[in-house]
Amino acid sequence: MTRLSTKISSLTLVNPLVLASGILGNDGLLLARAAKAGFGAVTTKSMTLEPREGYDTPIIAFVESGLLNAVGLSNPGYRALPDILKEAREGGAPVIVSIAASTPGEFHIIASYAEEHGADAVELNLSCPHVKGHGLQIGQDPGYTYEIVKTVSSSVDIPVFIKVGITDSLMETVSRSLDAGADAIVAINTLKAMAIDVYAKKPILSNKYGGLSGPAIHPVATRVVYEIYREYSPPIIGVGGVMTWIDAVEFILAGASAVGIGTAVAFKGLSTAGEILQGIEKYLDSEGFSSIEDIIGYVHRR
Amino acid sequence: MTRLSTKISSLTLVNPLVLASGILGNDGLLLARAAKAGFGAVTTKSMTLEPREGYDTPIIAFVESGLLNAVGLSNPGYRALPDILKEAREGGAPVIVSIAASTPGEFHIIASYAEEHGADAVELNLSCPHVKGHGLQIGQDPGYTYEIVKTVSSSVDIPVFIKVGITDSLMETVSRSLDAGADAIVAINTLKAMAIDVYAKKPILSNKYGGLSGPAIHPVATRVVYEIYREYSPPIIGVGGVMTWIDAVEFILAGASAVGIGTAVAFKGLSTAGEILQGIEKYLDSEGFSSIEDIIGYVHRR
Amino acid sequence: MTIGMTSLRYVRGFIDEVVTHGPGLKSLVINIDKLPVTVPGQFIMLWVPGYEEIPLSPSYHANGVIRLTIRERGPTTRKIHSMDVGEPVFLRGPYGTGFDLSRRARYLLVGGGYGAAPIIFAGHVLHKKGFESMYIEGVKSREYGLYTEEAGKLGMESMLVTEDGSSGYKGLVTEYVEKNIDGYDIVLGCGPEPMLNRLIEICLEHGVECQVSMERYIKCGVGICGSCILEGTGLLVCRDGPVFNARDLLEAGYEVGVDD
Amino acid sequence: MTIGMTSLRYVRGFIDEVVTHGPGLKSLVINIDKLPVTVPGQFIMLWVPGYEEIPLSPSYHANGVIRLTIRERGPTTRKIHSMDVGEPVFLRGPYGTGFDLSRRARYLLVGGGYGAAPIIFAGHVLHKKGFESMYIEGVKSREYGLYTEEAGKLGMESMLVTEDGSSGYKGLVTEYVEKNIDGYDIVLGCGPEPMLNRLIEICLEHGVECQVSMERYIKCGVGICGSCILEGTGLLVCRDGPVFNARDLLEAGYEVGVDD
Ligand SMILES: Cc1cc2nc3c(=O)[nH]c(=O)nc-3n(C[C@H](O)[C@H](O)[C@H](O)COP(=O)(O)OP(=O)(O)OC[C@H]3O[C@@H](n4cnc5c(N)ncnc54)[C@H](O)[C@@H]3O)c2cc1C
Ligand SMILES: Cc1cc2nc3c(=O)[nH]c(=O)nc-3n(C[C@H](O)[C@H](O)[C@H](O)COP(=O)(O)OP(=O)(O)OC[C@H]3O[C@@H](n4cnc5c(N)ncnc54)[C@H](O)[C@@H]3O)c2cc1C
Ligand SMILES: Cc1cc2nc3c(=O)[nH]c(=O)nc-3n(C[C@H](O)[C@H](O)[C@H](O)COP(=O)(O)O)c2cc1C
Ligand SMILES: Cc1cc2nc3c(=O)[nH]c(=O)nc-3n(C[C@H](O)[C@H](O)[C@H](O)COP(=O)(O)O)c2cc1C
Ligand code: FES
Ligand code: FES
Q1: Does residue A302 belong to any structural domain of this protein?
Q2: Single pTM value for the model
């Protein structure tokens, strides 16, 4: 382990930055490129059983505090995974396959297929806020979540991550997921939101509703990472509004073992990974820490 | 009615800007000053049965996308209302008394007392995210909400507003509140969040958790205003991240009859009201609308 | 490259003039003050509320006036073609890379169909800089011609190439280029992909630098959704392009000459 | 007045020097680069993680060095008094109004107890501007004296006023002011409220302008929580003040002379 490396369950990452699901994640070469640009792990777009076109444009809207998206889970369908994984793995970083589905059976099929074709981990998306029947509606039901996680974790050997969003039952969902064998928690997904253009006098997104990401959600995500760590201390991938190394360090101090990055890529490109890593290294130096591992959950210690 | 005036249930406001609860709302003269600075209505800090000191400092933390606060509902207790109301009413704008309590009986006592001493409306705070036993925990229980609203609305003649936050049962809470006689919905309160100073290596707020306000929550609030208007079209006061006239107009187009302002006062002072009103007037002119009323819920019309 | 915050929100513009060039080909001249200035080859996203937003490479942009040259193709472009002077449109951008026009060199400008849009814009800029250039436009038939006249008025050498010979040189635009490339240092191309592929081959053969503007389905425009991937290269049209240096394309694994 | 974004986040500084002035009175000299520069009379919020954050008016601030003069009073100031060179502190600000030092006039500077902090800072600035001023400091007894010597070194006329006569003039600082106010145009005051109230009265009687720095319980520092209200006036110490022109205070309904 070097000073920037970190572990999430059985996965070792050379650094704690993870390309979040949905960002450039439909193409293996792009994932490989992200890995080469410095991401310690990369996540595919959430894959569904059937290919999905996604929504009409506009699928994206910029607001003062971040970004709204309603991509509509556009993806080539899980049968494209072999190609994607083959190319993605050439980037040299672990590849996490994100899965969006509605039933334990569907999750099972895609997870097993992903494992078979070389995925290093699967991430169950229980929290997409703007696609009906997927995601957030499941995450609101801890019992159903348990069933899904149990099914998947008992059928694959690679680590199973659970991606959660903001719901009343968040902590229970986390707890039941861990009971059911989840290896790590990914927190958080976007918040359901809307942007209206006052001159167009219409919601910008063709889907009207979208998921809010970026700086807006960072303090909410920090709170969630802190709470999950305080209660259960599982491996956590903190996601939400990481734009600078400071945001990344905040997550790690709160309890995250790794840090997901999405929106920053829209604003600054893939090179943002390198800048954030540099900042983290400087911080470790200036504060006298010898490695990332020294600061995971540090705020809970005193 | 002039072009900027608006109605919320039986209240007529000379303009749609409402000073949100908790901002300068412990002092009658300050509320009067806000009214004179241009707010069409002002809301008191949420009043509790007993005086509350509030939390130790830091009670406030600035983040990239807004503000976190954990004031801890500090207020002089509802028995201070006569003085506050007397002074506040001299500002010339309607005064809304915000109430934080745990039981229907407590809400009832404070609401009746407020009415007796000249409140123009009461606002039931069912959504404070960082004080135990108050607020959000109630808002998560639509049945209990119904009981509270029913008790209050049948015991006072002034309008009863319900302030909601982000919960899974938000739409049900709104629906039950309206069934129980609520006259308007105030949406939204802050989101539970945390900020960590990476050099201090501690959560900034003494209470650790705080409520996130400002630009961060605006797109979430817009979505909620839109949804409530679409489903029930009650009078709505949209609150959350209104920093400019554009944000205010967004709320109104989404369905708000009035617009609450909090955090902008920290950033820009009370004069922000005047600037926002000017912007709204210019907008009405440039887009060919004759009054605020013309644009309430406009995005739903086509 | 960091995207400026000003490029992220929609700016409303009003149509000032509608020019009909030929069947299914129109230009909108739009008054739009607050849009940051576009480099030829960069694109903007145009949104007509109620329809999709689509990427377009301006055929002119200066002093608060932008010109978009648009071929009718599907529902959104059909709607745009039905619009009138005075109507509002919403633009965000500019995004992506533009042509490199910084070098004092002899430029050969090659546009095919509506691909002539960024090419004539490049012509305007080169003309202003006093750099030497020739403008070539390839179309099916003379009624689809767009900007050879405009190029001529700028004092540039210009040539219309028609497949049916109804005007100018008869044949494919790439044939004309191949015959006339000598003496030029840089070729700028925009048009159908087979045309661009051939252009790249010709430039390779003649040892001439080549910059081409590529087209893929652009959804977000800012390099986040992955929709505009150039298959097999790991390159994004919206962020790494749309203008690529041919050498970079080939190095990344782009294959020319497969489909014409 | 819009609060600049840079004033909203904590900046970490390190204690460079600790000066013990007398019983329960210390100054911290802090190296802090990124804190926007403070006008005398403005305050900063000082946070020692694990304790409360408190408002303090710097007694000096220039070139990345800020000096805070602090009286031990409760848990937070006790902690601060226990701190050593090299330890970190967190500051945000500056906030509120400062003294108006822009006019070429004769200034009478009056500090009571730790209220001398912004007063000596004002002295430094006035000295630099070459404006005429006299520095008066009122304390219980000579061992509580803070800055008369520093004022003297600046070449300003200065006077220590002690209640017990252990040094300088014996009596209340306001008595001394009353006797010496003639010839001055502006009085700047900071200290216990009864002292400020008397100062306002004296200035009124002599027709001299008076600016005073008021103290209330400051929690947010940015005019949002309402904690720092000056009762009966609708004025906020953190935003409308802490420095007020006495005339504005009286106009807003502030009442002097009630509690001394
Ligand atoms: C960088 C760039 C610059 C461009 N500049 C111009 C220009 O200056 N002038 C001009 O006329 N055109 C230009 N285009 C092409 C233009 O964007 C498309 O013609 C337009 O999007 C068509 O939209 P439509 O809905 O009218 O038609 P259609 O494309 O028929 O719409 C039907 C459906 O096709 C799909 N679709 C849309 N665009 C594409 C695409 N590019 N690839 C694959 N599928 C697609 C969508 O699902 C759409 O809903 C440019 C494209 C790019 C990438
Ligand atoms: C604008 C301004 C500038 C100041 N500048 C200086 C300065 O330069 N040097 C200096 O020594 N002091 C200054 N003070 C006073 C200083 O802020 C207090 O002495 C300090 O906050 C005390 O904190 P403590 O926790 O040590 O003590 P205590 O005040 O005893 O703390 C105990 C409790 O008292 C309450 N409390 C704290 N401060 C106040 C208050 N001001 N009014 C009412 N209740 C309070 C809180 O509940 C606190 O937890 C200034 C105050 C203001 C408003
Ligand atoms: C364009 C876009 C598409 C996304 N698609 C997915 C997805 O398919 N599955 C998923 O779990 N999360 C998806 N997300 C959410 C991100 O993975 C991430 O949780 C969220 O954006 C917060 O992180 P950020 O603020 O760094 O962007 C998407 C986000 C964006 C911006
Ligand atoms: C310092 C502060 C104190 C607040 N106190 C209350 C309160 O007592 N009761 C309440 O209902 N809302 C309270 N709020 C929430 C606001 O009324 C408002 O809903 C929220 O801040 C979002 O609006 P904004 O983004 O304009 O600030 C408080 C907000 C702030 C910033
Ligand atoms: S269009 Fe979304 S990445 Fe290029
Ligand atoms: S301290 Fe909060 S308003 Fe002044």
Answers
A1: no
A2: 0.95
